[in-house]
Amino acid sequence: MRLFFVPALLVPIAFVYACVRLWVIAVNVKAGRSRLKAGPASARTIGVCLAYGGLWVYTLAMLVFAARVVFTVGVASRQFGEAFAFLALYPVAVVLAEWCFFHGLERAPA
């Protein structure tokens, strides 16, 4: 039972971090405080766009999953394995997306 405690703490922390990071990136790019490091057709730009879109989709899927768990009384045993994999991979997805953001975005010159 103790093995599930640390991952159970990481999922909400990663969820809040992802929500804040997605908001901050959008605000900074729109305000001109951040920009892409490379040109519009480079692999870095494509990676940042895919990471941003993928993190949005995964975060929205987490919201839908949480709502389904809250409003559904029972969960079948076969769904438990799917849910565990879905939840366990979310912090990994957040770290990978942040890696893409770190290497693909830069602060705009003042």
Structure commentary:
There is one protein chain. With 110 residues, the chain is mainly alpha-helical. The protein has a domain of 59 residues. Helix content is 76%, strand content 5%. It is built from 3 helices and 2 strands. The protein has a two-stranded antiparallel ribbon with strand order 1-2. The N and C termini lie far apart (52 Å).
Topology (elements, then pairings):
Layout: H1 5-31, E1 34-36, H2 43-71, H3 77-104, E2 105-107
Antiparallel strand pairs: 1-2
Helix pairs in contact: 1-2, 1-3, 2-3
Tell me the distance between the termini.
52 Å
Q: Structural class of the helix and strand makeup?
A: mainly alpha
Topology, number of strands: 2
Query: Which stretches of 5+ consecutive residues score pLDDT under 50?
Result: none
Helix % is over 70%
Sum up the overall morphology in one term: elongated
Number of DSSP helical runs = 3
Strand percentage lies at 5-15%
What summary fits the major beta sheet? 2 strands, antiparallel
Short description:
The protein is mainly α and 110 residues long. 76% of the residues lie in helices and 5% in strands. The N and C termini lie far apart (52 Å).
Question: What would the keywords be for this entry?
Answer:
single chain; 110 residues; mainly alpha; two-stranded antiparallel sheet; 3 helices
